[in-house]
Amino acid sequence: MRIVISGTVGVGKSTVSELLFKKLKKTNHLNLLKEETVRSIYLDYYYKDPQEWAFISQLDFLLGRFKQWLLDEKKRELFVKNNKNNYITLYDRHFLDDYVFAELHTIKENISNINSITYQAIYKELIDKMNFLNARPDYFFLLTADFNTVIERFRDRNRKAEKDVDLEYWKDLFHNYYKRPMIQNHFKRNVEKFIVIDTNNKTPEIVMEEILNYLKKEKNI
Fold this sequence. Notes:
The longest helix has 33 residues, at 50-82. The protein has helices at 13-24, 43-48, 50-82, 98-107, 113-132, 147-157, 160-163, 167-178, 181-189, 204-217; strands at 2-6, 29-33, 87-92, 139-144, 193-198. The protein has a 5-stranded parallel β-sheet with strand order 2-3-1-4-5, sandwiched between helices. It is of the alpha/beta class and 221 residues long. The active site is at residue 92. InterPro entries: DCK/DGK, Deoxyribonucleoside_kinase, DNK_dom, P-loop_NTPase.
């Protein structure tokens, strides 16, 4: 089983992913693929000058996340051959999410049209590979919150690179994730089940329990 915890920067997906991992690992073979392990060497440059570095950094993120995904699929194959237990992968952001960021930078003209075409061609190849292997996410949980709540959450974690970014960028990213039907339709086309979880006025523990209860109703844990 493949479970994705998705959402804009600051919505709380990494915290929820960690809590869900701790809960599920007691009774399942579980692998948590953390977003922080896919870190581009271009990230700091990208935050300082997105127009110069958006294309190369987004491509680097995409390929890094795809490599992470592919290694996990190989582990899954070996595990399934030798065990009867369910192999669960929990994604703290999936490479499907990279589409959101690349689209945003194309709209903002940080990525040129020719580079956007190149990115989309590579991205399509990766999606086709995922579908060919029947390795689509089984559950894609999109965490939502009001914009002000999201800003408060990521300011609380006090990451310098994020604090230095113009507020307008975070507004645009928020809009891209939650207000553009084509983005959510893109997710729906490439996953088995797409579930939206409202995290407003909820602790990460409560959000985790909501996800857990949903999976229990599906009789998959």
